[in-house]
Specification:
mainly alpha; five-stranded parallel β-sheet; 5% strand; globular; disordered N terminus
Length: 521
């Protein structure tokens, strides 16, 4: 970007801040202040009716986003900025109204995190008739530093993660080697919850203030959406998001590592951070967040395995997913490497299923707009993969139902990892499992009438016959994957009669599975 030569008395500038970019140090604001006095900067945030209605979003997500935007406006005004919060039918119409009203010399904005938004920004100068400068996105660490620019080679998560650790100097000793002698303590972080004796601290909750209460009233009246606004208790300001982070660091981070893969009927959050909604809209900074976790380790508040596991989630997986999104777009959204075509089952809208794990997790998502990452991967995506559901349909369901859902994070996670539809660019194998995994890592099976140990029969868990049916259907492809070879070798123990029974029960189950139709919404 080439800046014009200007004096400090130039005509006013406008700064357009997107609703998921509520950063404390916004680069467009910083750039504008390097050119003009603060009094000459007009900030605009736009609430677009079209954007709100693109999908039937979870109502708690809309409350979070709209309330956070309005609180952010108040923070900027308190800091001395002139801020316009404009509601409009579309984003473009809102910007045109703003430009017509304020006649800025130019508009500054930060690059959108999503492909469609960035494409729109690139056309904005012509659409508005004024120069628009799109600054690089600083909301992600790999937006500030790309460890593998312009590479055509496949980059796996572990390689990416180590490069990010080195770049940002996290958990490294004086020689630049990983603290504790290993980069990754994942093997220590796979324990199910003990049956008794382990207290689970609940996450901090925030009572809605007047602004949030007004947003809840507006969102409840919207004609489309999923879930309810009732019970909304998330942070909507930077101050409260930081309080939520501190609550996690000192109450749940110590046990996060060992139990990050655990699942339970008793808690939606367990020892997870519940910080992704705030990171994804800019209320929390990722580097500051992992540095606070690192500090908790050095101060003796949390063990290394937990801290390393959390840091890996943020600067490893979260950043890797964003990097993969931009590497694979726009083709990622239509990737369907397994050729799946089945529609989403209705149970994902009403939780009507005898499978206690799916019923519990979907009910939780309907209520909260949240479940943790293992439930997303090994309960929901695992079922969708085994059932052969169209990855685009699964992707849309996730985008609709989660409070932390944005295309840059959902699509690589769901289409790439969960559905393994991108040709293995995101994950090196499909993450599929029988009921045994859920039985081992959760207490769901204890309260389910279906038997996680039966492969076929009236009481067999569908995860079992669907899993073995998947192996039978795709045996040749799966044998070619060295990470799945041992699982496929288990097929040799099945008799012809067992194979036929598995196939017949899987086909019948899928044919009788009620499907969702959009007109039902």
């Amino acid at each position: 970007m080439k800046w014009p030569v200007n004096e400090k008395n130039m005509a006013p500038l406008s700064v357009w801040i997107l609703g998921d970019q509520l950063l404390h140090s916004h680069p467009a604001l910083l750039a504008a202040e390097s050119l003009v006095e603060r009094s000459q900067i007009q900030v605009v945030l736009i609430e677009s009716e079209r954007r709100k209605g693109r999908l039937p979003y979870h109502r708690k997500k809309l409350v979070l986003l709209l309330s956070a935007m309005r609180h952010y406006v108040e923070e900027l005004r308190s800091a001395g900025y002139a801020v316009e919060y404009r509601r409009a039918p579309t984003m473009l119409e809102g910007l045109r109204q703003h430009v017509a009203a304020h006649r800025p010399e130019r508009v500054l904005t930060m690059a959108a995190a999503e492909y469609r938004g960035r494409q729109f920004q690139q056309r904005l100068s012509d659409l508005l008739g004024v120069p628009v400068d799109v600054l690089p996105n600083t909301q992600f660490l790999c937006g500030r530093f790309d460890p593998f620019p312009n590479t055509e080679k496949k980059v796996i998560l572990e390689t990416f993660y180590r490069a990010m650790r080195r770049r940002w100097g996290l958990l490294l000793d004086a020689q630049g080697e990983p603290v504790g002698g290993a980069w990754n303590f994942d093997r220590e972080n796979r324990k199910p919850l003990p049956r008794r004796g382990l207290a689970i601290p609940p996450p901090i909750r925030f009572a809605p203030d007047a602004i949030t209460a007004q947003v809840m009233h507006e969102v409840a009246a919207l004609p489309h959406g999923v879930g309810r606004v009732d019970g909304f208790d998330l942070a909507v300001t930077r101050h409260d998001a930081e309080r939520a982070r501190e609550d996690f660091l000192y109450h749940r981070l110590p046990n996060f590592g060992p139990y990050e893969d655990a699942m339970s009927c008793s808690s939606a959050v367990l020892f997870h951070s519940l910080l992704s909604p705030y990171l994804n809209i800019g209320l929390l900074d990722p580097l500051e967040t992992v540095q606070r976790a690192e500090q908790a380790y050095y101060e003796g508040h949390a063990p290394l395995a937990s801290v390393e596991g959390f840091i890996r989630q943020i600067i490893g997986w979260r950043e890797y997913i964003y990097w993969q999104y931009w590497r694979q777009m726009p083709g990622l959204l239509t990737a369907n490497g397994w050729g799946f075509t089945r529609a989403m089952p209705r149970l994902f809208w009403d939780a009507a299923t005898p499978m206690n794990c799916l019923r519990s997790v979907v009910s939780r998502v309907l209520e909260l707009g949240y479940c943790h990452h293992i439930e997303r991967l090994m309960v929901i995506c695992n079922f969708c993969m085994l059932a052969g559901i169209d990855p685009a349909a699964v992707n849309e369901w996730f985008l609709s139902f989660y409070v932390d859902a944005y295309e840059w994070v959902v699509s690589p996670n769901v289409i790439g990892m969960g559905m393994n539809a991108d040709g293995g660019q995101t994950a090196t194998k499909p993450y599929i499992a029988s009921a045994n995994y859920i039985h081992k890592m959760s207490d769901y099976c204890a309260e389910c009438r279906l038997n996680p140990k039966l492969r076929t029969g009236a009481d067999a868990c569908p995860y079992n016959f669907l899993y073995w049916n998947f192996l039978l259907e795709h045996e040749e492809t799966l044998r070619a994957n060295p990470r799945l070879g041992p699982a496929v070798l288990g097929l040799k123990h099945l008799t012809p009669e067992e194979r036929a029974a598995i196939r017949a029960q899987a086909v019948q189950f899928l044919e009788e599975l009620p499907l969702y139709h959009r007109e039902e919404a």
